[in-house]
Structure formats: structure tokens, C-alpha cells
Amino acid sequence: MSLLGLFGQAGKTDQLVGVLSDMGAGSVADTIKAPLEQLTSNSSAGLALIIGIVGALWSASGYVGAFGRAMNRIYEIQEGRPFWKLRPLMIIITLAAVILAGLVAIGLVVSGPVARAIGEAVGLGDTAVTIWGIVKWPVLLFLAALVVAVLYYATPNIKQPKFRWISLGAVVAIMTWVVASALFGLYVSQFSNYNKTYGSLAGVIIFLLWLWLTNLALLFGAELNAEMERGRQLQAGIPAEEALQLPPRDTRVIDKNDAKDARDIEQGKQLRRSGGDSTSTADGSASN
């Protein structure tokens, strides 16, 4: 939204909010419309842009870290990367995801004027707008698939056989998300009564529920990819019935935890032995 203010596109706020309304999230649109309009018309859009980027990275990096832990559960492996290696990686992944998501948002709200300006520069005029109006949806779908591919490849502590730009799990996740969003929008617009129950907070609650459905769709696609990899390993004769046979990216934390567990077990044995010796000595003294 700060970018829209910087580039003089404050009037495009209605288009962005209209996307939410078209999806059936009218309550969300009504809740955020006024703050967004104020943000784009603010003269300090540059400062807001910096604060927005830092806030988005901080918030989203928490989600990326949680998504990585869920991916480790799906691939049946522990987290072995140390903090100083894991945290910067999560921030880099978050930065890439935020940039791609920003490109998707910009493509939705300012693609028309940009396409018209480029078309006039090269002599195509409105033809460029028409062409971009058709082409932009596959491009935006590719950007969304790329975000999912990066999450699937980089967040778990396993070395994937290769980076897949578009995997079956990513396609299923995106299609599931589209269908779930449409059905959820229909439910919110026709059957729910969040406004009566929660008042002004209804938009926030609906938005969080939609994010929860989005996350379920992503995890469903990741689980599908993991089971397909299990099937490939079983066909190759690799014993993957109990656990996927994929090498970890790092095992330092796992090795450290295993060593600590071994020490605790050994100390417990020593305590039990020393306790048993003391009991034997006491029994012997009593007998004497």
C-alpha cells in the first residue's frame, strides 16, 4: 500500500479491496478500507514503506518458521540446523515470499496503467492492456506457485532430490486453496452471522479463518508431495515404509540433543546403581 502511495496510485485502493469483496470477504474489505486509504494518501509513504517491510518480515518469518516445523513433521525428521543458520534462512525465505506476494498485489491493482503506458510507448495502445489482462493471470498463478515451491523446498530439514518449480502437491494446494476460498466466501456472504456476533471484529476473525484454510491447503499439498516421494522410494526398493530416506540438511542440533539424552540416561543409571549399593549396604548392616 505504501508503494501505491509512492507511485501516485492511491486511487487503486478500491481495486485491491474489491478483490476481497469479490472473494466474499466483504467484512474484511469494510474493516481495512479506511486505514488503507489513509495510508496511501499519507505524505510519509516512504517511512510507512520501511515500517511495513520490517513489520511484514518480522510477522511472516514467524509463520515461515512454524511452517518449517510442520514440514519436518511431515517428512518425519527432527530440526538439525542451529539457530544462527536457521533464523537467517527463514528471514531470506520470508523476504522472497514477501517480494513475490508484493508483485502479485501490484499485478492486481496497477497492471492496467502500467500496461497502457508501455503500450503507448511501443505504439500498441489499448492492445497492450487487453493482452496483459489475459496474460497476467497465468503470470500471477506462476508467482503463487513459486512461493509455494520455495516453502516446500527450503523450509524442511531435508535435502530434496531437486527443486521443482511446479510440483503436483503445489498444484493441488493452490487448487484446493482456490476452491476452499470460494466456498468460504460463499459461506460468509450467505450463511454466517459474524457481524452480529463479533461486531467490528468480524472482519479480522474472518480473515484469520481464511488464513487458517490457506495454511491447511499448503500442508495438504506438502503431505501429498511427501507421500509421492515415499512411493518413488518404495518402487526403487528403498525401505521407506516407516520413514522417508532423505538426507538431512544439517544434524548438529540432533547430534547435540542425542548426546545430551545419552548423558542423562547414563547419569540416571549411575544414580540407580548408587542407590542400589546404598540399599544393599544398609541391609547388610541391619543383618549384622
Q: Mean of the pLDDT scores?
A: 79
Secondary-structure element string: HHHHHHHHHHH
Percent range of helical residues: over 70%
First CA to last CA: what distance?
Answer: 88 Å
Number of strands: 0
Q: Major sheet, described briefly? A: none
Broad shape: elongated
Gyration radius, rounded:
27 Å
- Count the DSSP helices: 11
State which percent range the strand residues make up: under 5%
Low-confidence segments: none
Strand-pairing-aware structural class: mainly alpha
What keywords describe this structure?
288 residues; mainly alpha; 11 helices; elongated
Provide a descriptive summary of the structure in words.
With 288 residues, the chain is mainly alpha-helical. The chain has a domain at 167-244. It contains eleven helices and no strands. The protein has helices spanning 2-6, 13-22, 26-41, 45-74, 83-109, 111-122, 126-154, 168-190, 194-198, 202-235, 252-287. Helix 3 (26-41) packs across helix 10, helix 4 crosses helix 10 and helix 5 packs antiparallel against helix 7. The longest helix has 36 residues, at 252-287.
